Amino acid sequence: MGEWVDFERWKECPQLQRPGYVFEVMNAEGQSLFTTCEVPLRLPSGWTSAPVRFRLVEAPKPRHSSPIPRPRP
What we know:
Blueprint: E1 5-6, H1 13-16, E2 21-27, E3 32-35, E4 51-58
Antiparallel strand pairs: 1-4, 2-3, 2-4
């Protein structure tokens, strides 16, 4: 995982992004999210504090979901 960077440098994320990696953004309360480079960053509605740092991390591996059940007759 990459080193934490102060969120004031978020506007530099286009130069930092790499294929197969995403950004982990953390707020002052310790909540985190994984996101691509998006300036300005749209924050989840449940976040009550602003982001304070971010880092580049390997993108999570895709997971297969369960099949959707057929409609009932």
